[in-house]
Here is the input.
Amino acid sequence: MSAITVPVRGAGFAAYDLVVGPGLVGEAGARLRGLGFRRVFVVADATVDALHGPTLRAGLEAAGVSHSGMTVPSGEATKSFDGLRTVLSALAEAGIDRKDAVVALGGGVTGDLAGLAAALWMRGVALVQIPTTLLAQVDSSVGGKTAIDLPQGKNLVGAFHQPRLVLADVDALATLPARQLRSGWAEALKHGLICDPAYFERLTGADAAALDGDRAALTRVVARSVEIKSAIVGEDEREAGARALLNLGHTFGHAVEAELGFDDAVLTHGEAVAVGCGLAFRFSAARGLCGADEAARATAAFAGAGLPTGLDPAWRLSADALLARMAGDKKAEGGHLTLILARGIGAAFVEKGADPAGVRAFLVSEGAA
Here is the structure.
């Protein structure tokens, strides 16, 4: 099975490629050497490093690329000021300069943290993403968003810093826990729901084999999701307009995550996106923006993949607390809610100034206190 190269292009940033296929972790050294890098610093998720770090380092050594690095703990709590300070201090001790590259090996947490460190170090050094989760491969590794969290909300401190290369090795997904694979599937479904009904149909049909680890299906899914995201990011890198569509499900989902303390054991980010997309479609239906049948189809796609689609009573969430979180979301303007809603599958749109009272009443109808 051959790799697929998806170009990521935009007027506001240097072009780069995402390459998806098998065996890419081992090829990273040769590809980095081909880009002119002679020294790199690897920031790796500790769990991922034990699985794939030796393969990466062997490839770097074979290609004559000098390397140093560090591991960071798994989990959203790593995306903090303490975590960022630790990475920046390590870059200083390693003597990394502007001719070098930071390589992120892991999921979205590692990519966000290492990416922000690369954006800040010496006002910006090159970044190479090697995402090892499906969620990171289809979404967070592409587009240049890097960030850490605050107790007040997710990804509130960050920078736009596009990578020089993204290597999405589908072999790495074979070591992924089933729950993490499903979490990534939520982001893929989201892309179909935003603007590509045919892709949504494939995800719930022929390409559903990816959830069982089919490498060819996984390669197709990652490639198509990145094509969709690349087209949107290329038009609107800084989220001034169309890029906000990629946040379908995120305003609701991030509020739930924050209220649960960003605890991956309770709710992963992908699961939060699934919950948020379910809420967004049902709220759209309640507003008469889309049919109840469309909302039911969207919800069923997530449920069929083993993902949550609504508020769990065990979470005991407050509608007022969720609403306050949503008002503090990055997309909010002047404290007014901005929601990504839908007129149907493949027809998402941005609604600014959503009525808080209507949103609160909807959250109560969904089980919030």
The CA atoms of residues 317 and 368 lie 5 Å apart. The first strand starts at residue 4 and ends at 10.
